[in-house]
Amino acid sequence: MTSVQDTGQDAADELKQKGERAAERTQQKAQQAGEEAKSKLRQEVDQRSQQVAEQVESTADAIRKAAEELRKQGKDQPAQLLSKGAQKTEQLGQYLKESNSEQILTDIEDTARRKPQAALAAGVAVGFAFSRFLKASSAKRRQSSGSQPSQTENLEPPLDVAAVEVAVPAAPPAPGTVITPAAPPPPTLPSERRV
Prior knowledge:
Layout: H1 2-72, H2 76-98, H3 101-114, H4 116-145
Helix pairs in contact: 1-2, 1-3, 3-4
């Protein structure tokens, strides 16, 4: 009877070892895939940061030129603001040129941890800019190919003016006053909608 138990125990041990080896291989492959993804991300960030740095620096030059034009027109206050903006833009370009992908990604992660709202706002801004870029590039491709935009492509959704409420206070509220937003209008049933 012991030989049957020993055989069963040996089979169980062998099966356990095979499972552990399979788990190790799977873990190694997952780590390898993760490292490859990180490497590709770093390469992409390095390449893109250099491209963006060049664009940012040319934008800084354009802002600086606009500031000079405003100074020539005697508008010193707006010119000063533009000059400061050009300086900050140029600093961003230098940062992107001089930093490697590891530093950029670390800074982004740190900022996102310290200021999650700012990270969310930046994500929304980047998404909006990217969507505008895609829309502009698709329009250019369409023009170069000679095709016309479809009729539904340029339609704007209708604005229900009755559903928009704007409250403008006559005077600022007194200190300590709690301001609550107006309640949204109740939903309309399909039978109540105007045609």
